Amino acid sequence: MEGLGVLEEMGELTRRGETFALATVVWRQGPSSSQSGARAIITAEGELHGWIGGACAEPVVIREAQRVMAAGTAKLLLLGTPEQFGAAVPDGMTVVPISCQSEGAIEIYIEPVLPAPHLVIVGVSPMAHTLASLARALGWRTELVGGPDFATAGADERSMIVVATQGHDDEDVLERAVAARPAYLGLVGSRRRGEGVLGYLAERGVPQDQLDRVRVPAGLDLGSTTHQEIAVAVLAELVQLRASGALVRPAANSVKQGSAVGSEEPGGIGGATGVGGAGGSKPVRPAQAVDPVCGMTVAAEASGRPVRHEDVDYYFCCAGCRRAFEKDPDAYVKRETRC
After folding, report:
1. Same domain for 185 and 204?
2. Residue 160 β-bridge partners
3. pLDDT of residue 245
4. What's the alpha-carbon Rg for the chain, to the nearest Å?
5. For residue 299, how many other CB atoms are within 10 A of its CB?
6. DSSP 182-215
7. Is there a single domain that holds both residue 97 and residue 171?
8. Are residues 186 and 214 in the same domain?
9. 274 belongs to a structural domain
10. Phi, psi at residue 303, to the nearest 5°?
11. Whole-number Å distance between alpha carbons of 186 and 218
12. Number of domains in the chain
């Protein structure tokens, strides 16, 4: 995939509300298989679509792209050996040493592409219309639906749902909304009304842990009286929760680096709003390891040319690094331990 193919894939991921990162080669020093202007997409699951360089650059770019998505901020990478640049590296640039036999270097700009927040407002009251207008002004993907038209399929665990049906089938709508397991679920109404609705759903067998996630009354307590002020209070709460990271859901497994093989641990995309959502399981990238010879990040699988030493598996970026390790493994193991 290259050129227009990358742009078309970006459009498709954006339409699906997926988080991803765009990596662009902005400079190269030959010899290098990459070219200036080359681009690639890295998904939240660590899949790379496009071309930004060969085996030396790809695992590093995937790892750094996942960090960029987690932080929600762009990063400028300089990939090469430290000796090539010395003290000439500008402030703010991240240098990642890699040991390519070609001795080339590349500079890559990685930026996160985060989906617009998805807000579903159930209800047709003036407050609901005001809230929809305010959310759209923020650029949020906003849907305004009547209670009978609301369907669980219209939302997922990345969505925020505000039920503002004003006493019209609140129980039925809220029960359907709870089933979507959204990142946020709020009921507009008095605390007393909310207790009655939640009590009814509990009697119907809705799990208590799901009911505990319902915010009632929805919105910050601003002492609001008018429907415009209630809409502002609800939106303010949503903005506050998103800014604090309270609505973030794990997007993919992150990988913790160990001395040999990285182990999987629950991870998330902080600024990358919660990704996941309904659907089947997504492919998971293999665990990663650090080449003990050159320090490159490599896949901890058969393609990483594994060598077992003292009951530990080590992986390598190329045959040359593996040969060097096999000649004197203790030298590299001891060096790794000192680091």
Report:
1. yes
2. 119, 184
3. 82
4. 25
5. 19
6. -SEEEE-S-HHHHHHHHHHHHHTT--HHHHTTEE
7. no
8. yes
9. no
10. -65, -15
11. 5
12. 3
CB within 8 Å of 196: residues ≥ 6 apart: none
SS3 category, 254: strand
CA dihedral 318, 319, 320, 322 (to 10 degrees): 90
Report the DSSP pairing between strands 263-265 and 254-256: antiparallel
Instruction: Kindly state whether residue 299 falls inside one of the protein's structural domains.
Output: yes
Q: Which domain-ending residue is among 82, 113, 144?
A: 113
H/E stretch holding 41: strand 39-43
Buried b (16+ CB within 10 A) or exposed e, 93-119: eeebebbbeeebbbbbebbbebbebbb
Look up the pTM and report it. 0.59
Q: Are residues 108 and 178 in the same domain?
A: no
Which pLDDT value is given to residue 276? 34
Residue tagged 């929600």 (tokens): 72
Rounded (10°) angle between helices 126-137 and 227-244: 40
Residues 100 and 8 in one domain: yes
Residue range of the domain that includes 8: 4-113
Q: What is the CATH number of the domain that holds 228?
A: 3.40.50.720
The alpha carbon torsion through 8, 12, 17, 21 (nearest 10 deg) reads -40
3-state secondary structure of 291: coil
**Residue 281 located in a structural domain:** no
What tokens appear for 251 in the block? 């997007």
- Token readout for 102 is 């070609």
Report whether 55 contacts 316 (CB < 8 A). Answer: no
Which token pair is 306? 């594994």
Q: What average pLDDT does range 31-56 have in this prediction? A: 83
Comparing C-alpha atoms, which of 75, 68, 84 is closest to residue 28?
84
Mean pLDDT to the nearest integer, 85-89: 65
Task: Please report whether residue 252 resides in a domain.
Answer: no
Among 113, 142, 171, the domain-final residue is 113
